[in-house]
Design goal:
Number of domains: 3
Shape: elongated
Largest sheet: 8 strands, mixed
Oligomer: single chain
Structural class: alpha/beta
Helix content: 40-55%
Distance between the termini: 61 Å
CATH superfamily of the largest domain: Alpha/Beta hydrolase fold, catalytic domain
Length: 550
């Protein structure tokens, strides 16, 4: 068995997807559809070649680098022949190819040198051109590159030869590229708000492979974005049924979590009517190609970026909770508020391999770039401070003023805390009760319905697996050496009586900051959302002291 040349195109660049057609003087061997050789003056169909000549062209066109050792060629094409018989058949095939191309004065399209049989370097292959364009588009979330690559795909590989093993292998790989391109195209349209077209493209993938979960998730997201969560959940049921009947398995965690998020938002108790709608949710992409959901609303002056907690955040679900919405509207009053869901949480991309302060910094950078503000104010709380501190140190000219609520600089200060350890252990055993316990810790002494509402947001924000990933990231996190580099004005607000982070941890951070204002508040809640009316005016006085951020 050989590897298809689909895998041997190298690292294709964006230019490859937009490359002009081959020069007219060069021949092209085509294997997408049926074999043909395109020449400047005409096209030779498969019938122009002998059976063995056609087989040799097909084999080389679908092989890595379009080259094979002659023993591989004879073993693959004439497995029942002796070595001498195989070599004779090979050289007859070469002669027949040269004879067929004699009229075009092309005698060495197939060359043999040092026992290597190859297509000449000046011969192009449509399969390789498609693969290069596909790889340039894959992961880019760019509609133009996806469409350019798909335009190169004319038909499956060698449609009349699918029973040949090496043809079947090449076809499977091309089918996978086509599938990925269509999914990439669907997600790119979904990112730009075209949910209907995204759903249509994803459905073409499901028509071929009903078990493709990524396509199911795109359809679910499209229905949900179109305001029809019931159909999104019906799609999840369809996915579940197909996988059980055809694959004898349940949906993946990513698909199940998306369904839980949609269901949580659809079943969450209605909030008060003002404001009537959640601000538009947009999407951007980090430098390491992670999809980040964000919002921008308010006036066009004094931009403020609100950095979320690493494992807590859901733009839509938070907006549906009065307590959370009042906080966001309060802190964003009289300015442009930019909010986002960090990687692995909320409406941002869930399947991520990395979560740490460096990753959060990339998420922040993507969102700040998307807003097109030169300078911004920034607010972060608890573990969100880790990424905010690193971003401020890496991009000091882009941060005008920085507000840190209960910051800690070393993750071990949290992982060694008894309360954090108890919540972490509970997350792996009793996710529901962990959500309730975290909500109570966030809100302190409150025992009203807000606790249940915030617990539902926590449930929709992330997963047990992601919380575990973040926990291990905490153990290695340390940004204490960056604090002396923060020369911009910094406000540290905190509650000395809160159970965590420890008061000594916050005070240690304060002592390392060169331009700091520290303001203590009463209470035991970990987050300030329970005291918007008391906390927000203090933050605004600090932020307004330096003039506009733009």
């Amino acid at each position: 068995m050989i590897r298809s040349s689909v895998r041997d195109t190298g690292s294709a660049s964006v230019a490859a997807a937009r490359a002009p057609a081959r020069p007219e003087s060069m021949p092209r061997v085509c294997v997408l559809g049926r074999l043909r050789v395109e020449l400047p003056a005409c096209t030779l169909e498969e019938s122009s070649f002998s059976t063995n000549g056609a087989l040799l062209l097909k084999l080389l066109a679908t092989s890595p680098g379009h080259a094979l050792h002659r023993e591989q060629v004879t073993e693959i094409l004439w497995p029942n022949s002796t070595a001498e018989q195989g070599y004779n058949a090979l050289y007859k095939a070469l002669h027949q190819i040269r004879t067929a191309l004699r009229a075009a004065e092309l005698h060495d399209v197939v060359q043999v040198e040092r026992q290597i049989v190859r297509l000449a370097e000046w011969v192009s292959v449509d399969l390789a051109q498609f693969a290069a364009a596909a790889r340039a588009a894959r992961g880019s979330r760019r509609i133009d590159l996806c469409e350019a690559a798909l335009e190169r795909y004319e038909a499956p590989v060698l449609v009349d030869d699918e029973r040949i093993s090496w043809v079947a292998a090449a076809r499977r790989e091309v089918d996978e590229l086509v599938r990925d391109l269509r999914l990439e195209l669907a997600e790119a349209h979904l990112d730009r708000g075209d949910a209907r077209f995204a759903c249509t493209v994803a459905q073409t993938v499901l028509d071929v492979d009903p078990c493709e979960e990524r396509a199911h998730r795109i359809v679910m997201r499209a229905f949900d974005a179109g305001g029809d969560p019931a159909r999104a959940l019906e799609q999840y049921e369809t996915c579940t049924d197909v996988l059980r009947r055809r694959g004898s398995r349940a949906p993946s965690r990513a698909t199940s979590e998306l369904a839980r998020t949609i269901d949580a938002r659809a079943t969450m108790p209605p909030s008060r009517p003002e404001p009537a709608t959640c601000p538009p949710i947009r999407f951007t992409q980090s430098s390491d190609h992670v999809r980040i959901a964000y919002q921008r609303f308010g006036s066009d002056a004094r931009p403020l970026v609100e950095v979320p907690l690493i494992t807590f955040g859901h733009l839509q679900c938070e907006w549906d909770v009065d307590l959370c919405r009042d906080w966001h509207l309060g802190i964003g009053g009289g300015r442009t508020l930019v909010r986002f869901d960090g990687r692995g949480t909320g409406l941002s991309e869930r399947e991520v391999a990395e979560v740490n302060s460096e990753a959060t910094t990339r998420d922040i950078a993507a969102v700040v770039d998307a807003t097109e503000f030169d300078r911004v104010d920034m607010y972060a709380a608890l573990d969100g401070c880790l990424g905010a501190i690193r971003f401020a140190a890496d991009h000091p000219t882009r941060i005008r003023r920085l507000v840190l609520w209960a910051p800690f600089t070393r993750g071990c200060e949290i992982t060694s805390h008894p309360m954090a350890q108890a919540l972490h252990e509970m997350a792996s055993r009793e996710w529901h009760w962990q959500c309730q316990s975290r909500a109570r810790a966030f809100l302190g002494d409150r025992r009203d319905t807000c606790v249940n509402e915030v617990a539902r947001v926590i449930d929709a924000s992330s997963t047990t697996e992601f919380v575990e990933l973040a926990w291990h990231a905490y153990e290695r996190a340390d940004v204490s050496d960056l604090l002396p580099q923060l020369t911009m004005p910094v406000l540290v607000a905190y509650r000395p009586d809160a159970p965590m982070p420890a008061r000594t941890s916050v005070e240690a951070a304060i002592n390392l900051l060169p331009n700091v204002t520290a303001v203590p508040f009463p209470g035991t809640a970990l987050l300030p959302i329970d005291a918007t009316e008391e906390v927000v005016p203090v933050l605004h006085r600090f932020l307004d002291a330096g003039g506009a951020a733009r």
